[in-house]
Every structure is written in C-alpha cells, then in structure tokens.
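Study this protein:
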Amino acid sequence: MTDLELAAALRDAIAVVRAAAPSDLPQSRAAIAELARVAAPPIPGIRPVVVRMPIHEPVQPPRPRAVADATVPATIEQRIACVLAEQPRPGETIDAAFRRKETDLGAAFSALAPLEARALQRRLGAPAANDDIAVQFARLTPERRARLLAFLGDARRREALKRGAA
C-alpha cells in the first residue's frame, strides 16, 4: 500500500468514525487501529507513536429558555406615557426638553425589576402599531432610543450590583 493509498484509507476511516453513532465509536476506532497496523508494519528499532484523534459527541442545540411573561406595572407605564407626551416647558430649548425626557425615562426604567425591564425592552425595540407607548418611544432619536434600550437591557447587572453592595 502506497503512502497516498494509506492516507486516503485513513481519511475515509476518520470520516466514517465522525459520522458514526456514539455507540459505534469503540468498533470504529479499533478498525482504524487495525488498518494502520496492517498498512504500516512496525520498523525495527522505531517505537510506534500513538495518535489519539479527538472524536466528539454530536453537539445538541441549546434548548430555548422559558421566559416568564412579565409585564410593566400600570403605574410605571402611565409614568412613561406622561414623560413621552410632555411638551417643552416655557423657555426650555428642544434639546434640553429631550435630555430631560431621556433622564425621566431612565428614572422610570430604573424602578423596573429585571424581567419587567426585559419585557419592556422587547416591547419598545419592536413597536406594535397599536401600542401607543412604543409608537411614541419610536419617535425619539435613534441615539436616545439606543441608550434607553441599552439601559433596560442592563437591568440584571444593576440588580446584581445592588445585591452585592448590600
């Protein structure tokens, strides 16, 4: 058997092993070892080198995690709606009014539990046409929306830091 034929036979055997069911692996490994022994007889004075091929179990796709159906408390939802509907105060610039809105929304969002924040983040990130709060939130500039959505997404970390500090 030439070196090229041996390489092709080993490549084919490895492909068979990788495609085999986990229960067939010991027999497949034995078949490869026998093929290597027959194809390349030992040379006097040279110790054989044992090469272990990593053969991994098939990877199972992760199971979808069950997400609790959390909703935003009505009082916070009303507060968010009021903040989004506010008009600029007399003598206040538009920029200052929207910075105030962003700060007030952040304060309302910080009162949410992590699961409630996650539910609101999903709701505001993909607004439904019949959801007034999500539609008003979508009118904010993309930068403000992104910051506020990131703040909602960071609720678990803030909760953990709060627990660690206590």
Remarks:
- The chain has a mean pLDDT of 80.
- The radius of gyration is 31 Å.
- Residues 74-165 form one domain.
